[in-house]
Amino acid sequence: MGALRTYIAALAALTATHAVALPNSPEDRARAFADCAGRYSAVAEHARLFDGDAAEEAEAHRNLFITLLEATLPDIDTSTRTSLNWRIDSKAAHAALLSTAAFTLDAKRAQFARDAAKRHIAVCSALILPV
After folding, report:
1. Which long-range contacts (CB under 8 A, 24 or more apart) does 84-92 make?
2. Which one, 56, 65, 99, 104, has the greatest CB density within 10 A?
């Protein structure tokens, strides 16, 4: 019940302060939360290479999305294993963008990856209040 209360409080805070379009179905919300948890995991790992302070903030965001994901799982017909797969897939995809942005020698490709990574994180950031 504690996770459900956290989920409800987070949604109430979101709707009170932002005009955020959360996915309509519980399955889509769970997938969005899993994707964001994975993306922030990748950001945290990447930040440890370059900026340790940013890693802590990314980890806090990841933990929030994991809490939101766990709160939605009882409402859907998806296993914890499936949600973990979503997180891992999202983390791998985001890590690839961050690596391309940081290490490729092709400036256009690096900029494309940097912009894509920023867009994906912006979607996640719009779902939560600043931590």
Report:
1. 86/31, 86/34, 86/35, 86/38, 87/34, 87/35, 87/37, 87/38, 87/41, 88/38, 89/38, 90/34, 90/35, 90/36, 90/37, 90/38, 90/39, 90/42, 91/38, 91/39, 91/41, 91/42, 92/38, 92/42
2. 65
pLDDT tens string 1-51: 455 454 444 444 444 444 457 788 899 999 999 999 999 999 999 999 987
CA distance 116 to 102: 13
Residues 6+ away with beta carbon under 8 Å from 112: none
**39, 91 Cβ separation under 8 angstroms:** yes
Q: What is the pTM of this model?
A: 0.81
Residue for token pair 């979101």: 14
Extract the tokens encoding 77.
Answer: 């017909």
d(CA 115, CA 120): 9
Residue 32 CA: distances (Å) to CA of 36, 46, 48, 66, 90: 6, 21, 24, 11, 10
